[in-house]
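User: Before I run my own analysis I want an independent prediction to cross-check against. Here's the chain; please return only the structure tokens and, at the end, one sentence I can use as a sanity check.
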Amino acid sequence: MTGFDSHCHLDFLDQAGSFMAGAQLSGIGHWLLPGTGPEQWQQAHRQFGDDKRVLLAAGHHPWFLPDGPADTQRLENWLARHNDGVALGEIGLDFSRHRPGTAAAAHQFDWFVAQLAIASERKLPVIIHSVKAHDRILQGLKQTPSVIGVIHGFVGPYAQAMAYVDRGFCLGAGRVIFQSSKTLDAFSRIPADRILVETDAPDQRVPDQYRSTLTPAEQKGSDNPLLDWSATLARLADARQLDPTSLMAQVRRNAAALFGT
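Assistant: Structure tokens:
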């Protein structure tokens, strides 16, 4: 059983091949590479389309939405030509005030629900980016009740987490569980079969003080962002009072159930 990183922008890493090889030595052997927009879908497919360790997804990220009405034709054409995608995403809403230039909320929501409709039609799970937008995300999901997926980098309390779990969603655990006690509490209490672990590499690095959970060999490669997965798993296992190996196996089963791999 090998570790599964459910959200990793491998195509943004200058040393992706080397980092992946180092991660494999530490037991991390599968990655899901989310999409952000048409040019990125093409780049990711060229670079990783033949790599069996990497799962691909395509979607319009809320940071990079085209202007104008939510025209999803390019996405639909891409999905029609490439049947190897395991999910639709990264899609969603980002209402953070700290990111200037992000599209207006109404524009983001139009794109979000349009892409949910495609996921529903194609029976694809979704990868959802939600920043200060859980209520609106849930409002959109009510329009497509058959759609399931993962909330990437979930941040929030247990009650909010369960609102997603009750809709059949998994939650992605990442750096925030080291910084937010309410989020760690949520991940310590939700059903184990709804947990995924992610790095969001190359961003969202685990704080340095928590890398002491890594093995000596892993600490030597601490400049490798893919190894943050091990520290995140260890933190989560401790919160749930589980052996990391058993939690890793559960996470792998969860990914297989959601993405069909």
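Sanity check: The chain has a mean pLDDT of 93.
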